[in-house]
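Workshop exercise sheet. Pairs work together: one partner reads the sequence aloud, the other fills in the structure field after running the prediction. Swap roles for the next sheet.
Pair: D.N. / O.F.
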Amino acid sequence: MNGWRRVCALADIPPLGARVVKHAAQGDIALFRNADGEVFALRDACPHKGGPLSQGIVFGRRVACPLHGMTIGLEDGCVVEDGCVMAPGAGCAQAFAVRVEADGSVWLADA
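Structure field:
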């Protein structure tokens, strides 16, 4: 599929967890799966101090950074609430378009 690449099967992403995939141009990308089976993709680095978001706790449409508890929205990668002291404009983790096909294959948009 032009502009998309298959990265894994939905079953490879644990519910309420994450799987990291390597992207030649973008580095590590974390694929998250919430309790509703929705899949999201973010650069695997907290915007605060670069902690591995893939090791955080997934709840609803959010993930908590494992280093400082900062809450990041899975839809857009932006900080939802301030769980620690951070510099103004700490920003967002880059979000990537992702889709799940009827056969359970997970596709990531080329960025």
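Discussion prompt: The chain has one domain: 4-109. What would you look at next?
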